[in-house]
C-alpha cells in the first residue's frame, strides 16, 4: 500500500462523510410532504433529559400530508405535542389521547423559494468541505514529495486521482441539491 493511495482513500472516506452530512441536512428541510424523518431533530424533555421524539413515540405517515405520533407513555403526549409545536418546523399538532396527528401545511410559493435557497446554501457548504479536503490531500502529497517519500510522478498521479474524487463528489452534491429543489417545488 503506497502512501499516496492512503491519502486518496482517506480523502475519499472524508468526502463521503460530507455527502452523508449533506443528506442528513437536506432531510430536515420540509417539502410539504409528510415523512417520518421530519421529526428526527425535535427534542422532548423525558425524565429531565432531552431526547428525540422517536425515542418516546412511534412516528408514522398516515397519508401524504399527515403524520401520526403514537406516544408509548400516556403522560408524554402533552410534552411531545408541545415540543413539535415549538420546533422550527411550523407544525400545528393535534392531540387525541395518546395519539398526536401532525398535519403538514401546504407551502406557499415564497416559502418554497426560500427553502430552495437554503438547499443551495447547504449544497455550497458541502462543496466547500469537499474542496477543503482536496486541498488537504494535495498538501499531504506535496509534503511526501518534499520529504522524498514519493516521486513527483506519484504526486501528479495522486493529485489527478484526488481531483477525480472531488469532481465525482461535487457532481453528486449537485444531483442531491437538484433532487431536493425539485421535491420542494413540486406542489
TrEMBL record:
GO terms for biological process: cytoplasmic translational termination. One of its GO terms (molecular function) is ribosomal large subunit binding. Gene3D superfamilies: 3.30.1360.40, Ribosome-recycling factor (1.10.132.20). Keywords: Coiled coil, Cytoplasm, Protein biosynthesis. Residues 123-154 form a coiled coil. Transmembrane segments: none annotated. GO terms for cellular component: cytosol. InterPro entries: Ribosome_recyc_fac, Ribosome_recyc_fac_dom, RRF_sf. It is found in: Cytoplasm. It comes from the Bacteria. Residues 22-185 form the Ribosome recycling factor domain. The keyword Isomerase does not apply. Responsible for the release of ribosomes from messenger RNA at the termination of protein biosynthesis. May increase the efficiency of translation by recycling ribosomes from one round of translation to another. Belongs to the RRF family. This is Ribosome-recycling factor. It comes from Castellaniella defragrans (strain DSM 12143 / CCUG 39792 / 65Phen) (Alcaligenes defragrans).
Amino acid at each position: 500500500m503506497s502512501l499516496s493511495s492512503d491519502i486518496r482513500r482517506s480523502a475519499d472516506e472524508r468526502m463521503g462523510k460530507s455527502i452523508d452530512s449533506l443528506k442528513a441536512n437536506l432531510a430536515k428541510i420540509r417539502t410539504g410532504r409528510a415523512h417520518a424523518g421530519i421529526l428526527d431533530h425535535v427534542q422532548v424533555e423525558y425524565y429531565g433529559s432531552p431526547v428525540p421524539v422517536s425515542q418516546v413515540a412511534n412516528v408514522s405517515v398516515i397519508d401524504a400530508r399527515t403524520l401520526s405520533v403514537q406516544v408509548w407513555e400516556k403522560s408524554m403526549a402533552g410534552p411531545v405535542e408541545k415540543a413539535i409545536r415549538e420546533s422550527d418546523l411550523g407544525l400545528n399538532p393535534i392531540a387525541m389521547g395518546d395519539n398526536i396527528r401532525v398535519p403538514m401545511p401546504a407551502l406557499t410559493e415564497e416559502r418554497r423559494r426560500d427553502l430552495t435557497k437554503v438547499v443551495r446554501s447547504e449544497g455550497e457548504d458541502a462543496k466547500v468541505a469537499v474542496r477543503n479536503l482536496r486541498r488537504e490531500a494535495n498538501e499531504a502529497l506535496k509534503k511526501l514529495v518534499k520529504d522524498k517519500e514519493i516521486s513527483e510522478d506519484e504526486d501528479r498521479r495522486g493529485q489527478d486521482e484526488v481531483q477525480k474524487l472531488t469532481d465525482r463528489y461535487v457532481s453528486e452534491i449537485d444531483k442531491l441539491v437538484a433532487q431536493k429543489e425539485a421535491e420542494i417545488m413540486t406542489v
